[in-house]
User: Fold this.
Amino acid sequence: MAIWELDATSELYPMVGRLVERYHSHLSEARITLYANDKNRNKANKIIIAEASKASAKMKASTNADFTLTVYMTPWSDLTMSQKKACLDHELCHCGVHYEPVKEAVGSGRGGRQRFKVVRDEYGRIQYTNEIKRNENGEPKWRLLPHDLEEFRDIVARHGIWDEDIQAFKEVLDRSCVDNSSNTEESIRGDD
Assistant:
């Protein structure tokens, strides 16, 4: 069978819905279609359990999806319920939206119209508002997001916490270890 669209009655749709509601409010307008695949997938010698994709224009025209999540059934079936929830949450973190940049007035242009420039930080990175950027039809402009941390274990072993991304990741891990020590399987499995 290889790949198939999951039925709307699949247990995964409510799990995704609860995760969007709780952690991914920016996806409240997103149409997410779920697929299953009975083939195994490996990338760089790692087993892929699930993956997120932004729907192509062709796929969007035929399925009306903004994003697709594909679950690889063999490794998925080996996960506990809390691992399945974490896996889906991870894939939803890849599903993002473009935000409007922060702009500041820089004077008037021809015809007296106000001119603006995009605000950047000291490293040249554009600063953004919380306002979602929309297309001409008023729909959110979706995008796929990379992982927050891109680093090799060997580099951290040799050089330690050498940049702010690694430090921020370590701080989250430290907090998570403390916070999760009080969680039980019951609270993880619950309909939060």
About this structure: The chain has three domains: 1-97+135-143, 100-132, 147-192. The chain has seven helices and twelve strands. Residues 164-180 form the longest helix (17 residues). The domain at 1-97+135-143 is CATH 3.30.2010 (Zincin-like).
